[in-house]
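Q: My labmate handed me this sequence with no annotations at all. I'd like to see what the chain might look like in three dimensions before we decide whether it's worth expressing. Could you predict it?
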Amino acid sequence: MAWVTGVVLAALTVWLVVGYGFLDYANTESKPELYRILWMAHGWLYVIYLIVGVDLAFRVRYSVWRTLLILIAGTVPFASFFAEAAVHRDLKRRNLLDSTPAPSAP
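A: Here is what I predict for the chain of 106 residues:
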């Protein structure tokens, strides 16, 4: 979810800068409908990100502060990528990642 939320937020942030800087998005009628739909989608994806983040925090027993940092990372462009990498490193260090290979399809 960190990657999905992060990619959508990063793309929308670039679109926001270009839209307001060069495409006159200050005028509400000039915003494409897809732009609005993607911001709404990011909101719902962020809710799922919050649920998954809290679930992870309970399973791994992260502190409240670490959990809040992970959850807030979904609101800052590109921060969720760094949070995901830090969590991945931590889980690897704790030997909590499943290292068994997935079964091959018949």
